[in-house]
Automatic annotation (TrEMBL):
Residues 156-335 form the D-isomer specific 2-hydroxyacid dehydrogenase NAD-binding domain. This is Formate dehydrogenase. Homodimer. The keyword Heme does not apply. It comes from Kibdelosporangium philippinense.
């Protein structure tokens, strides 16, 4: 029987919800590329309820315990005295969410001889040292597509929020004010702007599709080119690299995984080639941008705004400069953890666990590392050092 160690974010400060703002979730049959939604044999939760926090337990307890397994759920994940580090020593399976990542470093992997499966309840397994997982024979799987559209919606919201100066304008209202000039002195229309994405995978392409009706000029760069029909339909301009693309853009959105090719990509050098007053939206991973270079670019006016929901480390310390830099629209890491997304990634996690314990293959699209190498989606989208 296995021990499953699950790291989730804390419950709301005023307690686990007794009621919800809405009674149901829309039914979605398939993802835009035709991939089917998670299809476990059953679920023991109500879609639309809070599943990603400790009390929600991703709806897994009764299923796992009915199979004789042990489930340990904690939010205490950092430092040698954390519950995570203590419980890891004899865990067979670790489940973690990118929003509240349980960093699986080489040192931690070395302390976990039984660990054979690391599940990301979400997308983006960079909190797992993939090279160390490969060496230790650990399978890494994530719930591909579960929150790609959730993030794409957040990106569109943040682009509009920055360009139209929404957050300072909202603050004027909350503070009892009415100074229109203060609100509009940094407010523009998105219409006609040059907007581009670094990576046009599931999220990047969904962002492009959602922005097309705003009558903007769309650009992208990616390691693989999109089909010509898609480029034509959306009027996309392809660029061979981020370096080639960003000087042309008013708005840049980052939608690539964090791996050695993308870490630190948006540093002083690349930022200095952007148009003065460009906007940068990063909902991919905090480390793709250089923390202090972003602050400098906002302070100098090189960037007119920066928004996103990804930081390093997470949770971000109280003194993290992105909390107080000018013209930012940061949120905590929430874009992929809407209640809608939680229902999908909880079901996907259950599907992965069912496959694992039944000895049947995990869907190829969920695999990042398997059999001692990058596999499935991981072989396509990631690289190792
Ligand atoms: P996909 O795998 O569908 O897309 C990733 C794309 O990035 C692929 O098209 C890939 O190229 C491309 N890519 C990889 N490396 C580079 C590079 N060096 N330069 C340009 N393009 C590159 O993933 P998703 O779109 O679903 O997610 C993307 C990322 O977004 C995740 O890895 C994760 O880090 C982040 N994310 C954030 C969330 C949040 O809550 N904020 C939630 C979900 C994801 P190709 O495949 O063509 O080689």
């Amino acid at each position: 029987m296995a021990k499953i160690l699950c790291v989730l974010y804390d419950d709301p400060v005023d307690g686990y919800p007794a009621t919800y703002a809405r009674d149901d979730l829309p039914v979605i049959e398939r993802y835009p590329d035709g991939q089917t939604l998670p299809s476990p044999k059953g679920v023991d939760f109500t879609p639309g309820h809070l599943l990603g926090s400790v009390t929600g337990e991703l709806g897994l307890r009764s299923y796992l315990e009915s199979q004789g397994h042990t489930l340990v759920v904690t939010s205490d994940k950092d430092g040698p005295d954390s519950v995570f580090e203590r419980e890891l020593v004899d865990a067979d399976v670790v489940i973690s969410q990118p929003f509240w990542p349980a960093y699986l470093t080489p040192e931690r992997i070395a302390k976990a001889p039984n660990l054979k499966l690391a599940v990301t309840a979400g997308i983006g397994s960079d909190h797992v040292d993939l090279s160390a997982a490969i060496d230790a024979g650990i399978t890494v799987a994530e719930v591909t597509y579960c929150n790609s559209i959730s993030v794409a919606e957040h990106v569109v919201m943040m682009i509009l929020g920055l360009v139209r100066n929404y957050i300072p304008s909202y603050k004027i209202v909350v503070d009892g004010g009415w100074n229109i000039a203060d609100a509009v002195a940094r407010s523009y229309d998105l219409e006609g702007m040059q907007v581009g994405t670094v990576a046009a995978g599931r999220i990047g392409l969904a962002v492009l599709r959602r922005l097309a009706p705003f009558d903007v000029r769309l650009h992208y760069t990616d390691r693989h080119r999109l089909p010509a029909a898609v480029e034509e339909e959306l009027g996309l301009t392809f660029h061979a690299s981020a370096q080639e693309m960003v000087p042309h853009l008013d708005v840049v959105t980052i939608n690539a995984p964090l791996h050695p090719e993308t870490e630190g990509l948006f540093g002083d050098k690349l930022l200095s080639t952007m148009k003065r007053g460009a906007y940068l939206i990063n909902t991919a991973r905090g480390k793709i941008a250089d923390r202090d270079a972003i602050v400098r670019a906002l302070e100098s006016g090189q960037l007119a705004g920066y928004a996103g929901d990804v930081w390093y480390p997470q949770p971000a310390p109280a003194e993290h400069p992105w909390r107080s830099m000018p013209h930012h629209g940061m949120t905590p890491h929430i874009s992929g953890s809407s209640l809608s997304a939680q229902a999908r990634y909880a079901a996907g996690t259950r599907e992965i666990l069912e496959s694992w314990f039944d000895g049947t293959p995990i869907r190829d699209e969920y695999l990042i590392v398997d059999g001692g190498k990058l596999a499935g989606t991981g072989a396509h989208s990631y690289s190792t050092k």
